[in-house]
Amino acid sequence: MSTKSTLKTISTVVILALVAGGGWYAWQVLKSDEIPEKLEPYSEVINEVKSHIKTTEELPDYIASGNGRIEATEYDIATKIAGRLTKVLAEEGDTVEAGQTLAVIDTDDLNAQLREANASYKEAVEARKYAIAIVEQYKSELTYAQTELRRFLELSKKGHVSQENVDQKRTAFKSADAALKAANIKVVQSASGIEAAEARIQRLKANIDDSTLKAPIKGRVLYRLAEPGEVLASGGKVMTVLDLTDVYMSIFLPTAEAGKVTIGAEARMIIDAIPQYTIPAKVTFVAAEAQFTPRSVETRAERDKLMFRVKVKIDSALLKKHIQKVKTGVPGVTYISLDPEKGWTDKLELRLPE
Residue limits of the CzcB-like barrel-sandwich hybrid domain (predicted)? Predict the structure, then answer.
């Protein structure tokens, strides 16, 4: 809301308050959770003013507070490989289940490559069979060459054959031995060819499977970023899904308070849109280094301070129970207990929807 419209709204309520009985009455109306019956026609305006007026609240020194916005973990549904988008099966705002198909990438080219890879695999298997057969052939030739060499050595001793004939048989034996070794190497190479073909088939099947984009978690589609027919590069985003069971608020606390916050400390959240409820939460992270607070913090004075970011998470079981009501981006205030031995104030006692 703009400043001009806010001032106009406040002026309207002031006029109503004067009609109803003065400024003190207006202040009581703004502090109360209930709206008097005679002001019911103006309830929308009064609630709007309440959201823009920060009433002074005295908190015990063992409770720290800070404002922020409800956030949820986001999952980008993106392509693993480049391709043309053929189907997008979810709209913004849809609730999707884990494993549900969200989009499909064209796989015609991959399927053609897979057929080629299968053919190469069959060829590699046959090549190994042929290499094994060649090994058996060279084993026989080596055995024959060895027998011939022994025979000629015996005949040479008796003077029946010349030394030249013996040398020829010895050369034939060595050639047969070398050929057998080469054939064994071919068997190993053919086995490696089979493994390479299997790996290629496995890779292509994985790419084909990855061309069907599925939801990694149960959640809600936040953004739909691409449409059927678009060609996306590797890593191209198709949509963003919110994990509504991982909802948190980040607030910023000064050193004096942040130093007392412990991981797992109890916390309470009050959301501006539903101030009648007090939601339980726990601290899951405290920054190790101070920083200037971001622009999302409401006042300039707070942004100029060095603060510590504290992450407070709502219990996932509670979120699952009310998952259809979970909204992100809405502002609110988080309260953190700095002393577990002390209780909460009446305002911060648990109040949950049915």
Answer: 76-243
> Could you tell me how many helices (H) and strands (E) the chain has, helices first?
8, 13
- Distance separating alpha carbons of residues 69 and 248, to the nearest angstrom: 8
Contact of 32 with 275, CB cutoff 8 Å: no
- The predicted structure's pLDDT at residue 78: 96
Q: What structural domains and CATH numbers belong to the chain?
A: 63-73+244-348 (2.40.30.170), 75-107+213-238 (2.40.50.100), 108-211 (1.20.120)
Write b or e for each residue in 176-200: b if 16 or more Cβ atoms lie within 10 A of its Cβ, otherwise e.
beebbeebbebbeebbebbeebeeb
Q: Report the distance separating Cα 222 and Cα 233, nearest Å.
A: 21
pLDDT averaged over every residue in the chain:
85
Q: Is the pTM of this model over 0.90?
A: no
Among 121, 90, 56, 52, smallest CA distance to 218 is for 90
In the chain, the N- to C-terminal Cα span, in Å, equals 31
CB 117 within 8 A of CB 204: yes
Q: 203-215, pLDDT tens digit by residue?
A: 999 999 999 999 9
| More confident: 323 or 70 | 70
Q: Which helix (H) or strand (E) holds 314?
A: strand 306-314
Q: Is 40 exposed, middle or buried (0-12, 13-18, 19+ CB in 10 A)?
A: exposed
Q: What is the pLDDT of residue 354?
A: 76
200: helix, strand or coil: helix
Cα(54)–Cα(214) distance, integer angstroms = 44
